[in-house]
Amino acid sequence: MKEEADEIFCALFDLEPEDLNDDLSPDQVPEWDSIGHMSLVSGLESQFGVQLSTGEILEIQQLKDVYKVLERHLSSGQ
Amino acid sequence: MIRELILEYEAKKKGKLCFHDYVLLEKKIDRALKNENPDPVPGDPIPGIPFRCMIITNFTAEMVKKALRVECFKLGLAPEVVSYEYFGIVSRLGESGEGGGFQPDLIILGLLGDEIFPHIYQDAGAANGTDLEEKTREELEQVAALTGMLKDRFKCPLLVHNFHYPFDRQTDPFGASSVFQSYAFLNSCFSSNILSGKKGVYCLDYNKLVNKTGWDRWKDERQWYLFKQPFHNDCIPSLVHEYMRFIKPLKGKNKKCLVLDLDNTLWGGVLGEAGIDGIQLEPQSPGNIFLDFQKYLKALANKGIILAICSKNNESDVDRVFQEHPFMFLKKKDFAATKINWQDKPQNIREISEEIGIGMDSIVFVDDNPRERELMREMAPEVLTVELPEDPALYRAALEGLNDFDALTRTEEDSQRQAHYQAKKSRDSLKESSGSLDGFYKNLKMQIAFKEIQPASFDRICQLVKKTNQFNLTTRRYSEDEISRFVDSPDYKIYSLKMVDKYGDNGLIGAAIVHIQDAAWRLDVFLLSCRVIGLTLEKVFISKLAAEANQRQAQKLVGVYIPSPKNGVCQNMYRDLGFKHVESREDTPEEVWEYALGKFPDPPDYVQPLQD
Questions:
Q1: Closest Cα of chain A to B59: distance in Å?
Q2: What's the CATH superfamily of A2-75?
Q3: Which residues pair with B556 in a beta bridge?
Q4: Helix B62-74 with B236-250: angle, nearest 10 deg
Q5: Residue B15 pLDDT class (50, 70, 90 cuts)
Q6: How far apart are CA B329 and CA B273, in angstroms?
Q7: Whether the predicted pLDDT of B267 surpasses 50
Q8: Sign of the Cα pseudo-torsion (A16, A18, A19, A24, in order)
């Protein structure tokens, strides 16, 4: 899961895997603005076949939140 | 270069792009552009035909812009897309300078009814009667004023969304009528105030798109409350698809001519096999599928689309269908060009394009046979080859799914076009195909099995002997009993050919009955199923027979050709394969050909033996 999420993240925000860390937030990633956030959510949803709730979309503030939210969806058996 | 990048990506995804693919593609494109021009200043040209588009909406259009840019690049355009907020632009447009020096080629005005007409769209704001009508008129006048201003200022075409049905209103058996009445009133005012009589103002049928998709799939509350985008991201490609319907003709990229196959396309079944009475084409099922499809094609022709035929058939058979079939809806005069012959189709389409005088890139090719489609893609990639579904009931939907046939203006000339081309139609004799087809055959990955008759293949061989009309050199119709006797006789041998290619197992598609007369092997029956005509399998089959005969100490192969009204396709087979003409008799049209054995060429290397 983590690798796939990282891949989407890197492709959207022009990053290399070695640039990633759990605490990465929009402050450090110039392209992670509100449009970038929409693109990120849409990419995660189509890659993992899940639908994030409004609360979860807002909850994603750092890269680690992406893992957390996905983990929740995938472990609940969707 | 950018276009290739998109096509390559699309091929990787097998033509199905989801919204996320558009996002990634836009990234790739921007990266490629940046590599070419690392330090762009505004106004720097980007490669392609310039296309400037202004989008004015009362919702967030940022995501739509992404997919729109990609589709424009795919068309070979160099798009510049800017977007404005509706409520902001109305006041600012008055001030000079707003919009900068931006001179759009197209303005898209996409307004959601929800915020402009709360009295129609929201239960809380619902109004009735004259109050409602007044409010509706007032708001629409604002929109009309804006469209007028935009037309004056930018003098470019304007594409305006219509309004979707107020799905969010609560309806019950008593209240429904007021909702749809108010919606009907909105629509009628929209038509009369915004659209009718306005030159260069076009309507994007947003309501139809929403309904076609289904409201529950279309809406996305999360996107709406968080980002002010009313629809689900997955629906964006279909909205952009509708935009492209206008952009294509605007930039001269629409298609003008539809080239159609006949068998299993305009009618069901194979004419050469089933005969005029056996093809499916009538008001009852399953012929009604094809009758309706023909009616749809006629409607396209009335819109100005040129129709043409490209079919492997005998022209005289087809002419009979046009003249005598009671349900043949399209007439020969509906077609600007007809190529009914056994030549390869890419060559035929080239001739059609010259005859009619339109570019190959204006042509759409419709054929039920995946091999013909692949050959066309290979040899004439500039032609748009439609991926026709297997079920003919879905042909129409497949064509309707294209956004390539629209014109922005329709003239008298368009509707007369067919007659025009008909008159111009030349009757030049057919040119021989020149291009090398080897690459295509290789790509089919044909595998064959050549075998002597077996109990398991007996029935199928009998069926082929009884039914095959076209690629049948002698058309001798032996009964099952007769064939049984051949099987038992030492003077006869019966062989079959089976073929599997990348499209699947075609089953047993060739049969030959050999009469052994001393050292001569006489091909009493030699036939191939119509499914595989044009794939050079006759060469393969004869070469296998020659090897077999050689091994059994025969000296020569003797081929017989007996012309029939339907087997013109194979009349030159023996000559083409290097046989020598030895005999034609006065009293019969039968031809006899010979081949001295010992050195018959191997089968072409693109055919492999079938691995069991």
A1: 14
A2: ACP-like (1.10.1200.10)
A3: B520, B596
A4: 50
A5: confident
A6: 21
A7: yes
A8: positive
Alpha helices in B251-380 (DSSP H): 271-274, 287-302, 315-324, 345-356, 370-379
Full strand arrangement of the beta sheet holding B335-340: B335-340, B306-311, B257-260, B363-366, B384-385
CA dist B533 and B509 (Å) reads 10
Most A-contacting residue of B30, B220, B226 (CB-CB within 10 A), to test interface: B226
Kindly give the residue spans of alpha helices, DSSP state H, lying in B468-525.
480-488
Q: What Rg value do the Cα atoms of chain A yield, rounded? A: 11
Question: Homologous superfamily of B257-435 in CATH?
Answer: HAD superfamily/HAD-like (3.40.50.1000)
Tokens linked to B100: 């900068």
In angstroms, the CA B559 to CA B466 distance is 20
Q: What is the ipTM of this complex?
A: 0.94
pLDDT at B598 (0 to 100): 78
Tell me the one-letter amino acid at B208.
K
Q: What tens digit of pLDDT does each residue of B121-173 get? A: 988 777 777 788 899 999 999 899 889 988 888 889 999 999 999 998 887 77
Task: Identify from A13, A39, A40, A58 which residue to disrupt to test chain B contact, counting B C-beta atoms within 10 A and taking the largest count.
Answer: A39
pLDDT in tens, A6-54: 999 999 999 999 999 999 999 999 899 999 999 999 999 999 999 999 9
Say which range, B77-91, B296-310, B569-583, has the weakest mean pLDDT.
B77-91
- Give the class (CATH, top level) of B2-250: alpha beta
Taking the domain B444-609, which CATH number applies?
Answer: 3.40.630.30
For residue B491, give Cα distances in angstroms to A7, B25, B461: 71, 67, 18
User: Is the Cβ pair A38, B223 closer than 8 Å?
Assistant: yes
* pLDDT above 70 (res B424): no
Among all residues of chain A, which has the CA nearest to that of B236? A42
Give the side-chain half-sphere CA count within 13 A for A42: 25
Min Cα distance A67 → chain B (Å) is 19
Query: Which range in B130-134, B429-433, B479-483 is most confidently predicted, on average pLDDT?
Result: B479-483
Asked if B2-250 and B444-609 have one fold, the answer is: no
Q: What is the pLDDT of residues B86-126, one digit of tens each?
A: 877 766 665 555 555 788 999 999 999 998 999 899 887 77
Report how far residue B439's alpha carbon sits from residue B218's, in angstroms, rounded to the nearest whole number: 45
CB nearest to B19's CB, from A14, A34, A42: A42
